[in-house]
Please model this.
Amino acid sequence: MHPHIIHEKETMFELGTIENNVIQYDFDKIVAYLNYKGKLLFGKDFKIYDEDLFLVYKLCLFYIRDYKNCEKYGIDPYKGILLSGPVGCGKTSLMKLLKCITPEHNSYQVIPCRQITFQFNGKGYPTIEMYGSSNSYCFDDLGVEPDGKHFGQDCNVMGEVLLSRHDLFIQNKRLTYATTNLNANELGERYGTRVRSRMRQLFNLVAFDKDCRDKR
Ligand SMILES: Nc1ncnc2c1ncn2[C@@H]1O[C@H](COP(=O)(O)OP(=O)(O)O)[C@@H](O)[C@H]1O
Ligand SMILES: [Mg+2]
Model:
């Protein structure tokens, strides 16, 4: 139909135009929509900061599946996204917001890794099955969750989930998304080299600057 037209309450947003049956997205219009929707979701102080525009632009290329520019900026549209950056720079908000520009695809639930670990502590291995073997998820705050423990048995829950997601990715191209405030080395230390090398296949790494401002 018209996936570039989004209806919000009293306002309609056209994120681009259709030319020869292809949507030509207009980045300024996407940003205008993100500013509007961000205020709805996160409060009136939300805005896309100028200093984040390039990062937002690259992420949008992924979401709107602009294959040509994805290639130009080193983004593989067939992998998921790992958005990293310091605490408070806006990672979680952005991952919740960006999926709104393409509601009919790239859909995923944003879920804190802590919550998955706690769920594992109560329910055990079915939790890993649940997050590892279907759907698309954005695992929020990867790497700082505690280890799981179910009936006395320790488990690196998110490490196991990521291994399962890697199988899922290889088998049927299901994408995985995540946010983290750890760097690649720290993630390697947390999950081990086996998971680390699979993460490289699962994710495009997109990073806020390490001295990016805290938005809280
Ligand atoms: N672009 C933004 N404009 C205004 N406030 C923001 C923006 N991004 C995030 N915030 C606010 O800053 C706080 C931290 O954002 P969050 O997305 O949780 O950061 P992170 O996940 O990187 O720690 C939240 O209260 C959020 O509403
Ligand atoms: Mg966060």
User: Anything to note?
Assistant: The two ends are 38 Å apart (CA to CA).
